[in-house]
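Bit of a strange request maybe. I'm writing a small parser for structure token strings and I need a real example to test against, not something I typed by hand. Could someone generate the tokens for this chain?
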Amino acid sequence: MSGSAAEAPLHAARLISRDAGRPLVPIILELPDAVRASHTVPGQYVSLAAGGESGYFVVASPVGAPQWRLLIKAGGTTADALLAEPLGATFAVTDALGKGFPMDEARGRRLVVAVAGTGIAAAPPIAARRIADGDARRTHLLLGLQLAAHMPCPDDVDAWRAAGMDVLLCVSREDAESAGIVRGYVPDVARERLARADGTMVFVVGPSAMVDATRTVAPLLGGAAADVRTNY
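Reply from user aminoacidic:
Good idea to test on real output. This should exercise your parser:
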């Protein structure tokens, strides 16, 4: 991810919740109102300093939410510090960064949201906006995980489906398939399971190899190259 984090002013954020127990750990930060107001578009991210280093994290809360939710995966200095510090600890964060996703451009159109790993954080704010815009039934959410049990926000998945969205958990290390759970990587599932519809937009967040593979699949879904968007 890129942005002007090096020049961005820093603010104090307080850790008020951490739901451990899955590889992707949701944490909740309490921030000043002015910082929260900087989150205006789904897909924006924040630079956060912890453990002597800084890392980028997609804001997983809907725009306008009273706190920011982030998804943390162990394995980096910043992430490990966020997972180890006690509740109540404070961290330095920037305002929300990046251009996010062009939600107005996607309004009224079929949208495929392809996300994997910590990129799943982009799904809740996108889904909230699509529901608000009346586009839930034009939305396909493909969420890449190793196991379905690793989904960090299962209640959100239920709510998205109840709103009319097509939600598929694309699992790479689980053989059994059931309703809404499919074995395979996100780009492969998109190619095999989704019909073509001209004018489709594709929003993608995840590892670079997944993003590249999704770009190659997009024309089969009816999406032009210019309609495949990342959040940076």
